[in-house]
TrEMBL record:
UniProt-listed InterPro entries: ACT-like_dom_sf, ACT_dom, UPF0237/GcvR_regulator, UPF0237_ACT
NCBIfam families per the UniProt record, alphabetical: PRK00194.1
Domain ACT: residue ranges: 4-77
Gene3D superfamilies, sorted: 3.30.70.260
Protein name: UPF0237 protein LMG8286_01302
Pfam families: ACT_6
Highest rank taxon of the organism: Bacteria
Family: Belongs to the UPF0237 family.
Coiled-coil regions listed in the entry: none
């Protein structure tokens, strides 16, 4: 399973650490990551994967809850959606 995780919110210490820790707890490996701060707002995009087929509804719920604790918005989407868009 491969997915794209995005994180957006006001910049603060510990966002990357908090998100990476949660992804590890969910047994998601970070394959690639990019982050920047734009005018005080933190943005991050990560490609994650897992050997297991994980439930996206459960993952999305866990990440949304964790994002609220970090004061950021976390979203996860299947990479298959992006692959399909480019094969049309």
């Amino acid at each position: 399973m491969k997915a794209i995780v995005t994180v957006i919110g006001k910049d603060a210490t510990g966002i990357v650490a908090g998100v990476a820790t949660k992804l590890a707890e969910l047994e998601l490996n970070i394959d690639d990551i990019s982050q920047t701060v734009l005018d005080g707002y933190f943005t991050m995009m990560a490609v994650v994967s897992s050997e297991k087929q994980l439930d996206f509804t459960a993952l999305r719920s866990e990440l949304e809850t964790h994002g609220a604790n970090l004061n950021v918005k976390i979203n996860i989407q299947s990479a298959a959606i992006f692959d399909a868009m480019h094969n049309i």
